[in-house]
Amino acid sequence: MSQTLEAYLALSAILFAVGTFGFLARRNAIAMLMSIELMLNAVNLSIVAFGAFIPSLNGDAAVIALMVMAVAAAEATVGLAIVIAIYRNRRTPLVDEYHQMSE
Amino acid sequence: MTLPTTIPLLGWSWNDLLFLVLGSVLIGTALMVVLGRNIIRSGLWLIFCFATLAGLYALLGNPLVAAAQVLVYMGAIAVLILFAIMLTQTKGGPAALVFHHQAWAAAIAAVVLGGLLAIVVSVSGWPLVGPFMATSTNLVAELIFGDYLLAFEIVGVLLLAAVIGGVYLAKRDDGPPEPEA
Question: What pTM does this model have?
Answer without folding.
Answer: 0.89
